Amino acid sequence: MAIAPARALSAKVGSGFPQDMRRARPLLGTFVEICVSGSARSDVDDAVDAAFADVARVHRLMSFHEADSDVGRVNRDGYDAAVAVDPWTFQVLEAAIDLNRRSEGLFDVGVAPALQRLGLLPGVPDDPREPIGGGAHDAIELLPGRRVRLRHRGVRIDLGGIAKGFAVDRAVEVLNDRGVAGGIVNAGGDLAAFGSLPHVVDIRDPRDPRHALCRLRLRNAALASSGGRFDPLASAAVGPAAIVDPRSHARVCAIIGASVVAPSCMLADALTKVVMLAGEHATPLLQHWQAEALFVPASGDVRVTPHWQDSVDLAA
Amino acid sequence: MTGWLRWTAPAAAIAIASPAHAVQYLSIAQAQKLAFPSATGFAEMQAGRAWKAQSGGQTIGLFVFDRVIGKHLYIDYSVAIGSDGRVRRVDILQYRESYGDEVKGASWLAQFVGKGSGSSLQVGSDIRNISGATLSSHHVTEGVKRILAAYGNRAR
């Protein structure tokens, strides 16, 4: 196991911003970090506060865990009557249903009952039967007036596989709108860089979290990764990924980690789930959204799309 | 499109947490000011732990510093509680990730020499963005709940 000396490392990174400001808050079940540069300090403070406020808003609207979030209300009442939701929630659901259709069911925000059965989400499914197939595009109905209806009683939605990326995009939008020159928003590994300078990002190796698999330079692009949850407060190991195959309701195990670079963080976030499930078969979908990907199989070689390396610095 | 390529990891894989991944976001004083911009002073209630935010002789809230600590990580954070007894904001002040054996090594310790609460590690040279397995913020969330239970009714 090679351990690079810290000094040699630091010489290679952070060539960008001497005036960086960096803040972090616990949101979306992880640590959301915003790093910005290139504006007067007081303006930046306000912009960063506004960006965190929007991330917190996404958290409130789309949390599966909170009964009064949009997601909580749709899951409780959506079968009996259409539920009006916030424009942001509606926008994420529209994207989720589009992804569901284009991925032929591999990306599915309707897998919550399967996640509950496996203990990956709290609570027990209301309907003990396995949900009827057909996926989110069939099970979730989007109606005029930003109302949402569930077509089957057993359907429960969980936006955990897409909302984090959406939140990152909202934060970047706020920072851009407020004239912040550049920076990076990182929600527990789902991140987006904006501005003219590239940002250096390491991708953690899912087989050994102490090491980076590779290093990227991101400029006006988003990167998301899927893999296990990682809790260095408890252990050095990465837990298994909390992703199930909507077709079989089995947990993903053939691929243990995936990263996607895409134009938006919402897409990158969602597409990592597709790559975790489909591996090399995710190609058409990645091409459709001009995304590049890397995945780590449980055994065998790490695979990357042909243009992945264009944005990667060799770490050696 | 041509097929996927085999990715060969470089021989000297980059170490993320060696000797340590550390970020100093805010000092206690900075976090206090951000949480209560209108405060004229902070009166210490418990040394190094809890302060009353004051403005014109009135208490306008409470600022509590805490740390969650584990085997491979510790996180300093602060909770600002408004006079309504509700959480106003939670800031991460410092984050340090390390791995067992390296903590004992002199080089790991050396990097913190002179890095008191008033100084910060050089942003950009010590710190990298990391994508990968999602970091859980569960321990901090639990800590915020504990702080709210202990201090929530003392902010008025």
Q: Would you count the extended β strands of chain A for me?
A: 16
Low-confidence stretches of chain A: 1-18
Mean pLDDT of chain B: 77
> N-to-C SSE series of chain B?
EEEHEEEEEHHEEH
Topology of chain A as a string of helices (H) and strands (E)? HEEHHEHHHEEHEEEEEEEEHHEEE
Roughly how many Å apart are the termini of chain A?
Answer: 14 Å
Query: How many strand segments of chain B?
Result: 10
The main sheet of chain B comes to:
6 strands, antiparallel
| Number of contiguous helices of chain A | 9
Q: Any idea what the radius of gyration of chain B is?
A: 19 Å
Gross morphology of chain B is: elongated
In percent, how much strand structure appears in the residues of chain A? 25-35%
Itemize the secondary structure elements and their pairings.
The complex is a heterodimer of chains A (316) and B (156).
Chain A: H1 6-12, E1 21-27, E2 30-37, H2 41-62, H3 70-77, E3 83-84, H4 87-102, H5 112-117, H6 136-139, E4 140-143, E5 147-150, H7 163-177, E6 182-187, E7 190-194, E8 199-205, E9 208-218, E10 221-226, E11 228-230, E12 238-241, E13 255-262, H8 265-278, H9 283-288, E14 292-297, E15 302-304, E16 312-313
Antiparallel strand pairs in A: 1-2, 2-6, 3-5, 4-5, 6-7, 7-10, 8-9, 9-16, 10-13, 11-12, 13-14, 14-15
Helix pairs in contact in A: 2-7, 7-8
Chain B: E1 5-7, E2 14-15, E3 21-24, H1 28-35, E4 41-46, E5 50-55, E6 58-69, E7 73-82, E8 87-97, H2 100-104, H3 106-110, E9 129-131, E10 134-135, H4 138-151
Antiparallel strand pairs in B: 3-8, 4-5, 5-6, 6-7, 7-8
